[in-house]
Every structure is written in C-alpha cells, then in structure tokens.
Amino acid sequence: MTDRLQSVDRLLERREAISDLGDALRLLIEHATATEAPTEELRRAAERIRQAAGPLGERIRERTEVAAADDLLGGVRMYNPVIGRGSALAPPVHVESSNGVAVGTCTLGLAYEGPPMYAHGGVSAMLLDQMLGHAVTSSGKPGMTVQLDTAYRKPVPLMTALRLTAEVSQVEGRRVTAVGAIATAERPDEVLVTATGLFVALRAEQAQRLFGPVMRPRAS
Ligand SMILES: CCCCCCCCCCCC(=O)SCCNC(=O)CCNC(=O)[C@H](O)C(C)(C)COP(=O)(O)OP(=O)(O)OC[C@H]1O[C@@H](n2cnc3c(N)ncnc32)[C@H](O)[C@@H]1OP(=O)(O)O
Questions:
Q1: Ligand 1 site: residues with CB under 6 angstroms?
Q2: 38 CA distance to ligand 1 centroid (A)?
Q3: Topology of 94-207 in CATH?
Q4: Which of 79, 123, 144 maximizes ligand 1 atoms within 8 Å of its Cβ, making it the mutation to test the pocket?
Q5: pTM
Q6: How far apart are alpha carbons 164 and 85 in whole angstroms?
Q7: Contact 100, 55 (CB under 8 A)
Q8: Which residue intervals define the domain Thioesterase in the entry (predicted)?
C-alpha cells in the first residue's frame, strides 16, 4: 500500500473515531438532560466524566489551528456545531447541497428545548444559518452571514424528524441572499420557521485578515 493510501486510511479511521466519540457525547448529553436518576448517581457520573475528559485534554489544538481530521476546502468540518459528527452540540444535521439548493435532515432531542416540548428559537436560527450557508456555498459564491432574519410561525417539535431546506434567491455582486425553512419530515409543506440570510463574499484582504492563520498549509 502506498504512503498516500495509508494516510488516507488513517484519516478515515480518525474521522470514524471522532464520529463515534461524538455519538457517545450526544448520548451522554441527551441522557444528562432527560435523567431523573438519583442525585448520588449524578455526582458519580460527573466524576467519571471528568476522568474521561482528562486524557482528551492532554493534546489539544490552538484556536488558530484547523482540526487534523478537517478538510476546509473539501467541506469536512468534524466539529461544526450543526453538521459536525464529532460535535456534542450538533444534532447533527445531514445536508445534501448542489447548485444553490440545500436539503437537510435531523432530529432534535431534549437538549435543544426552549419552550417545553419544542426547540429553542436560537437553535432554529442556527440550523437555518447553516442551511443557508450550504445553499450559498454550493452556488459557487461562498460568503459570511451579515444578516439573518427568522420568522417563527409554529413551534418546532423535539424528538421529531425534521426537514430543512434552503436556496439562493438573489445574487448582487458580492452579496448573495438565500431563503430557508424548517418543517417536519412528515409534513414538509407545513412551514414552522423561515429565514432569509444575506451573505457577503469576502475580498481577499478580508479573508486574509479574518482567516490568515488557518489558510496557511499545516506544518508536517
Ligand atoms: C461545510 C461546507 C459547506 C459550508 C457551509 C458553511 C455554512 C456556515 C454557515 C454559518 C455562516 C456563519 O455563521 S458566518 C459567521 C457569522 N458572520 C460573521 O461573523 C460576519 C461578521 N461580519 C464581517 O466580518 C464583515 O461584515 C464582513 C467581512 C463579512 C464584510 O465586511 P463589511 O466591511 O461589513 O462589508 P464590505 O466588504 O465593505 O461590503 C460588502 C457588501 O455587503 C454589504 N453589507 C455588509 N453588511 C451588510 C448588512 N448587515 N446588511 C446589508 N448589507 C450589508 C455592504 O454594504 C457591501 O455592499 P456593496 O458596497 O458591495 O454594495
């Protein structure tokens, strides 16, 4: 096997391990949010979790470093808080996108609760910001969100399969507008939340100023 294939194998193995750890963390968060276990059990669990966290903290990256398992240009972000399979914060949303259109699926657990039984409005906005970002990126003109307007029409139920959609609606020079919505998978035509986002493609000097350290090739 060539070195390159071996390194690809190692990368895929690492991503699989990161996803596995992400799954375990999401299970932990969901159980820790839903638990009515005895108080003593909570104290024991806190101690065991601190023990598990210790070794993970022994080798950590700086803010200016991209995770070794990520591929920025290839769109792999293992710790993104919406789509990252390694992120304890991410549902995670599974997204397919092309030509300015994105479709996502996820189910939100009790950890995302705002009003009882329903998603927090900030979570819905976060999901939609990400979805709009995918639509915009897949249109070939990636940018950063400069404005996000959300309209909450009906509450988003937890523990229910959701369907998220987004599409580019307007391109004006460096400004790209995208619109998106959240519905349940069962009733995709019943809109629960909508969003309109304005994205701005960065000028070269803006990209350098904001992302300079992570744009440099990794030292091997
Ligand atoms: C995994 C793979 C897939 C990838 C999928 C990725 C999904 C990620 C989704 C998450 C996206 C995010 O959350 S991004 C994170 C949140 N966003 C941010 O932190 C952005 C913070 N904002 C900024 O740093 C700055 O605003 C910049 C650098 C974006 C733009 O700089 P600027 O100085 O404001 O704007 P400038 O370049 O001069 O001008 C750009 C044009 O946009 C206009 N403009 C700028 N802001 C606004 C505004 N709020 N409303 C209207 N118009 C605006 C200007 O008037 C100008 O128009 P004209 O003169 O040209 O006509």
A1: 75, 77, 129-130, 133-134, 137, 144-147, 173-175, 198, 200, 202-203, 206
A2: 48
A3: Thiol Ester Dehydrase; Chain A (3.10.129)
A4: 144
A5: 0.94
A6: 17
A7: no
A8: 119-178
